[in-house]
Amino acid sequence: MTDWFDKGCKSCRNGVLSGQSTPAKVATNVQEHVHLLRCSTCGSWWLETEREAHVIDDAEARSTFPDFFG
C-alpha cells in the first residue's frame, strides 16, 4: 500500500483532506458512486468515493470513466 505522503503532491493531498477545489472534480460515475479528480499542480488522478480518496493510475481512470476520455 502506498504511503499517504507518496500520493500526489502536497497541494492535492491538502485539497482532498479539506474539500478545496484542488484537485478539481472532472467526472462522475453515477453507477459506481465515485468522482474523478485531477490535480492541476502535479497531474495526479484521484478516485473519490463517499468516504475516501485515492490516487489512481491513468489506466484505472480510463476504465472507470470511459465517457470522460471518449
What does this protein structure show overall?
With 70 residues, the protein is of the alpha+beta class. The chain has one domain (4-69). Helices cover 29% and strands 27% of the residues. It has helices at residues 10-18, 58-64, 66-69, and strands spanning 24-29, 34-38, 45-48, 53-56. The protein has a four-stranded antiparallel sheet. A hairpin with a 4-residue loop joins strand 3 (45-48) and strand 4 (53-56). The protein is globular and about 30 Å long. The relative contact order is 0.20.
* Radius of gyration based on Cα positions: 11 Å
Helix/strand/pairing class, anyone? alpha+beta
Largest sheet: 4 strands, antiparallel
What sort of overall outline do the alpha carbons produce when their principal axes are compared? Answer: globular
Q: What number of structural domains do the residues give? A: 1
End-to-end Cα distance: 30 Å
Strand % is: 25-35%
- Following the backbone from N to C, one meets helices and strands in this order, namely HEEEEHH
User: Helix content range of the residues, please?
Assistant: 25-40%
Alpha plus pi helix count = 3
**Count of individual beta strands:** 4
Q: In which order are the strands of the major sheet placed?
A: 1-2-3-4
Pick out the low-confidence regions: none
Kindly report the average pLDDT value: 92
